[in-house]
C-alpha cells in the first residue's frame, strides 16, 4: 500500500507563470531541431552563456545563448528607442554654401521626397529607418516586460512571431552609411554641420544592432510557451523530410506534417511546409522582375543636380565615374559594390542556385549554402544609393543656387533591391541538399 503523501509535497506553492531559467536547467530530455538550411535533425547540446549551437552538417547557427537575455534585450531596446526619439527631435544635418544655409531633421529625408512626387520611395525610407525599427523595439519591450513580470502580456505569441519577419527590413545601419556617403559627396561644395540628431542616430544604429543580436529566440519561446516533446520516433543524424517532420522557422520546434507536407506549429501556430511552396518558381519569377527593372534603374538618371541654372542628370554608373574623377575613390568603390556588383551578383547567384538545385544533388552543397547565406546577408546594403539620394534631396534646397532632385531610376532601383531580397527569401536552401529521391517525392507539392 502506498504511503500517504505529506501535505507540504501534495500542495506545492503555485509556480510562476513564466520561468526565466534557461531551457537547459529545466529539461533533462533532449531538445531536437531540424536545420533550416539543410534539414539535418540534431539534438541541441546544453549551452552556457555566450555559446552557440551550430548545425554539424552545414554550420548554420541554430541557437545562441545569452546571459540575462530578457534584461539585456529589454535594456538595449529601451535605450535604442530613447536615442531614436532624440535623433528625430534634434537637427540632423546642416549645410551652408555661399551664405545660404539649411538644416534638416531626420524625418525630412523621407518627407522631402514627397515634394518630388516620389511617394513610394518616401514611404520605403520612412518605414525602413524609423517605423519598422520602432515597431520592432516596442515589440521586444512588450515581450520582455511580460516575461520579467512573470506573466506574458496579451498578444505575446503573435508579436514574437512577427519579430523574425520585421528584422530584414530594418535598414537604419544602411541609412547611416548612405548619410556618410552623401556627406563625402558634397563635402567639397559646402560646409557641413553634424547636428545632435546625427550623433544620436549613430548611437541608435549601434544599439538597434545590439538589440537584435541580443534576442535569444530559443529562450524567448521556451519562456513564453515551454517546449512540447518532439514527435515519437524522431531520429537524429538524418534529414527531417523522409521522417515527415520539419522545424518551425519561427520558434524552431520540430513538428510532424500531414500527408500533403503541411501543418501548423504546435508551439507558435506558424504555418509549416516541408519545403517553401513553389520555391523555385517564385524565385525565378522575382528574379525575372528584378532583371527587367534593373534596366531602367541603370538607364535613367538616379538624381539630377542643378547648379547655377545648369541641370546635370547622373545615372548610377555615371555617379561612380564622377566620384572617380573628383578623386573620391573610397566612396566610388562603396557605390560600385553596393549599387552595381551586389544586385548583379545576387541575380546571377540566385539564378545559378535555382538552375542547379534540381540536378546537382549535394554537389558543392556547403559552398552553395554559404553563397546563399551571403546573398541573403548583403542584399539590403544595396539600399545605400537610395538613401544617398534621400539625404541629398532633403539637404540641398538652396533655391536657385543649387538643388538636387530624385530621378526615375530611384524608384526602379529601390524595387530591384526589395524584389531581390524577396527572391532570396523565397528560395529554400534545403533544396540544395535534397537527394534525387526527396526531389521526386516533392514534385507534387513544390
Ligand atoms: Zn544544416
Ligand atoms: Zn513554431
Task: Explain how this protein is built.
The chain is built from 17 helices and 14 strands. The strands form 6 sheets. It has a 3-stranded antiparallel beta sheet. A 3-stranded antiparallel beta sheet has the order 13-12-14. The termini are far apart. It has a domain at 69-219 and 277-435. A hairpin with a 2-residue loop joins strand 5 and strand 6 (100-105). The model is unreliable at 7-15 (pLDDT under 50). With 446 residues, it is of the alpha+beta class. Helix 3 (69-89) runs antiparallel to helix 8 (196-214), helix 4 (108-114) crosses helix 14 (384-395) and helix 10 packs antiparallel against helix 15. One zinc ion (ZN) is lined by residues 35, 37-38, 40, 55, 57-58, 60.
Count every beta strand, where a strand is a DSSP E run of 2 or more residues: 14
> Mean pLDDT, nearest integer?
87
What's the oligomerization state? single chain
- Which percent range fits the helix content? 40-55%
Termini gap: 59 Å
How many alpha or pi helices? 17
Q: What is the global morphology?
A: globular
Query: Based on helices, strands and strand pairing, what is the structural class?
Result: alpha+beta
Low-confidence stretches: 7-15
Keywords:
about 450 residues; 3-stranded antiparallel beta sheet; 14 strands; about 55% helix; binds zinc ion
In short:
It is built from 17 helices and 14 strands. It is an alpha+beta fold.
List the helices and strands and how they pair.
Blueprint: H1 7-10, H2 23-26, E1 31-34, E2 41-44, E3 52-54, E4 61-64, H3 69-89, E5 91-97, E6 100-105, H4 108-114, H5 119-148, H6 156-166, H7 172-186, E7 191-194, H8 196-214, H9 217-225, E8 245-247, E9 254-256, E10 262-264, E11 271-273, H10 279-299, E12 303-307, E13 310-314, H11 316-325, H12 329-356, H13 365-378, H14 384-395, E14 402-406, H15 408-426, H16 430-433, H17 436-442
Antiparallel strand pairs: 1-2, 3-4, 5-6, 5-7, 8-9, 10-11, 12-13, 12-14
Helix pairs in contact: 3-5, 3-8, 4-5, 4-14, 5-6, 7-14, 10-12, 10-15, 11-12, 12-13, 12-15
This protein binds zinc ion (ZN) (2 copies).
Amino acid at each position: 500500500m502506498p504511503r500517504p503523501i505529506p501535505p507540504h509535497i501534495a500542495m506545492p506553492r503555485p509556480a510562476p507563470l513564466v520561468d526565466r531559467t534557461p531551457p537547459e536547467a529545466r529539461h533533462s530530455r533532449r531538445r531536437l531541431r531540424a536545420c533550416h538550411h539543410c534539414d539535418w535533425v540534431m539534438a541541441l547540446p546544453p549551452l552556457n552563456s555566450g555559446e552557440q549551437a551550430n548545425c554539424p552538417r552545414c554550420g548554420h547557427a541554430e541557437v545562441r545563448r545569452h546571459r540575462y537575455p530578457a534584461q539585456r534585450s529589454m535594456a538595449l531596446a529601451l535605450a535604442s528607442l530613447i536615442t531614436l526619439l532624440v535623433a528625430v527631435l534634434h537637427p540632423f544635418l546642416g549645410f551652408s554654401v555661399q551664405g545660404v544655409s539649411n538644416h534638416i531633421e531626420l524625418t525630412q529625408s523621407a518627407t522631402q521626397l514627397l515634394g518630388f512626387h516620389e511617394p513610394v520611395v518616401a514611404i520605403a525610407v520612412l518605414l525602413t529607418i524609423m517605423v519598422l525599427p520602432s515597431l520592432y523595439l516596442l515589440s521586444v519591450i512588450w515581450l520582455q516586460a511580460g516575461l520579467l513580470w512573470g506573466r506574458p502580456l496579451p498578444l505575446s505569441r503573435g508579436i514574437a512571431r512577427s519579430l523574425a519577419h520585421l528584422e530584414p527590413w530594418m535598414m537604419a545601419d544602411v541609412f547611416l552609411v548612405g548619410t556618410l556617403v552623401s556627406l563625402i559627396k558634397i563635402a567639397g561644395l559646402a560646409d557641413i554641420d553634424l547636428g545632435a540628431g546625427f550623433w544620436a542616430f549613430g548611437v541608435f544604429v549601434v544599439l538597434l544592432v545590439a538589440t537584435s543580436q541580443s534576442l535569444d529566440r530559443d529562450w524567448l519561446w521556451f519562456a513564453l510557451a515551454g517546449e512540447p516533446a518532439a514527435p515519437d520516433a524522431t531520429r537524429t543524424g538524418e534529414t527531417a523530410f523522409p521522417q515527415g517532420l520539419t522545424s518551425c522557422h519561427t520558434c524552431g520546434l520540430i513538428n510532424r506534417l500531414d500527408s500533403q507536407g503541411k501543418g501548423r506549429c504546435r508551439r507558435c501556430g506558424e504555418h509549416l511546409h516541408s519545403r517553401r511552396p513553389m520555391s523555385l518558381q517564385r524565385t525565378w519569377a522575382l528574379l525575372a522582375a528584378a532583371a527587367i527593372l534593373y534596366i531602367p534603374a541603370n538607364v535613367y538618371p538616379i538624381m539630377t543636380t542643378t547648379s547655377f541654372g545648369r541641370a546635370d542628370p547622373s545615372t548610377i554608373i555615371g555617379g561612380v565615374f564622377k566620384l572617380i574623377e573628383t578623386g573620391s575613390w573610397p566612396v566610388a568603390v562603396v557605390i560600385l559594390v553596393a549599387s552595381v556588383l551586389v544586385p548583379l551578383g545576387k541575380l546571377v547567384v540566385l539564378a545559378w542556385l535555382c538552375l542547379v538545385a534540381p540536378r546537382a544533388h549535394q554537389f558543392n552543397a556547403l559552398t552553395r549554402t554559404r553563397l546563399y547565406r551571403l546573398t541573403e546577408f548583403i542584399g539590403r546594403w544595396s539600399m545605400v544609393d537610395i538613401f544617398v539620394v534621400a539625404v541629398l534631396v532633403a539637404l540641398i534646397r538652396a533655391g536657385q543656387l543649387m538643388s538636387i532632385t530624385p530621378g526615375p531610376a530611384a524608384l526602379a532601383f529601390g524595387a530591384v533591391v526589395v524584389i531581390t531580397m524577396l527572391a532570396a527569401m523565397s528560395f529554400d536552401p534545403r533544396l540544395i541538399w535534397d537527394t534525387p529521391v526527396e526531389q521526386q517525392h516533392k514534385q507534387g507539392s513544390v
